[in-house]
Design a protein that fits this description.
Layout (H helix, E strand, L loop, with lengths): L3 H34 L5 H9 L9 H13 L9 H32 L1 H14 L4 H14 L6 H24 L4 H9 L4 H36 L8 H10 L3 H32 L5
């Protein structure tokens, strides 16, 4: 209960700020319409009007909840209006990018830990790579993919997701693989352990807490990459595409519903990663 109260307090504060923002931002249109009609609405009338606009500047939470419910449960999952359908399109690119990012991050981390040359040459470039804005890089990846004949839009989206997700895995795995103390490494050397045995029996187990911690960041980054990757590809399917369509056609409720669906999807993916971590800890005999 002590853990629930702070969370509920933050959620309540977010809803209060959200409703206040909706009232403030949407009231301009209401007052403008009232001035045109020559009327003088009261506070209650302004409040009702700001909370139920068809095209609000800031959608009220209950409007977003209705749009989200209709998008998830009010449509067939195969319908192009279903958020489940669009969520699956985004999830597919997210998972491909996530797996690719893990493989790339872990492989580079192993190389960096075992090679001073890789440490000095690759690590600085890996850090610099994250300073490039993804909104500028994403169109380049799409253009390059089209140039080499890749027509499947899943590929550039997965590459963009991997670009964002590999870095937290790389940094955490480098720290994890280097976490064993000199005393532990010297002990294995006295037993005549090879470099391979030191890796499998000491470095890799020691790096797992770092690895799973990085996965929670990486899966969220991968989802962001998939959504961003849908914007310059001209995609009509996916949560990012729904946000873009809602923005272009002046349908903010579609945009807000897709945004909330992406947040729910991110939360579920983080819960899955957490469940896998607890399962791995239990198998390794690590106390929670």
């Amino acid at each position: 209960m002590r853990n629930v109260i702070p969370v509920l307090t933050v959620v309540a504060a977010i809803f209060v700020i959200w409703y206040l923002a909706a009232f403030w931002m949407n009231s301009t249109w209401v007052l403008d319409q009232a001035e045109r009609a020559g009327t003088d609405p009261g506070l209650g009338e302004i409040l009702r009007a700001t909370m139920n606009q068809d095209r609000p500047v800031v959608a009220a939470p209950h409007q977003v909840a209705v749009a989200l419910w209709d998008g998830i449960f009010g449509q067939s999952v195969t319908s192009k209006r279903s958020l489940v359908y669009h969520g699956w399109i985004t999830l597919e690119a997210t998972l491909w990018g996530f797996v690719l990012g893990i493989v790339l991050g872990v492989a580079l981390a192993i190389a960096i830990v075992h090679s001073r040359t890789m440490d000095r040459s690759v690590m600085p470039w890996a850090v610099i790579s994250q300073t490039v804005p993804i909104v500028a890089l994403a169109p380049m990846i799409v253009v390059l993919s089209n140039t080499v004949g890749i027509e499947d839009r899943l590929v550039p989206k997965a590459i963009i997701s991997a670009y964002l997700s590999f870095f937290p895995v790389l940094v955490s795995m480098v720290s994890g693989l280097r976490s064993p103390s000199d005393m532990q490494l010297d002990l294995l050397k006295t037993y005549g352990a090879s470099r391979s045995q030191v890796f499998w029996k000491l470095r890799l187990p020691a790096s797992l807490p770092y690895f799973f911690a990085s996965l929670k960041v990486a899966i969220a980054a991968s989802l962001i990459g998939a959504i961003v990757g849908e914007l310059p590809t001209g995609a009509i399917n996916g949560l990012g595409a729904r946000m873009l369509i809602g923005s272009q056609f002046g349908q903010p409720l579609i945009m807000w519903a897709a945004l909330m669906a992406a947040a729910l999807l991110a939360g579920m993916l983080i819960l899955v990663v957490g469940a896998v971590q607890r399962l791995a800890d239990r198998r390794m005999g690590v106390s929670p």
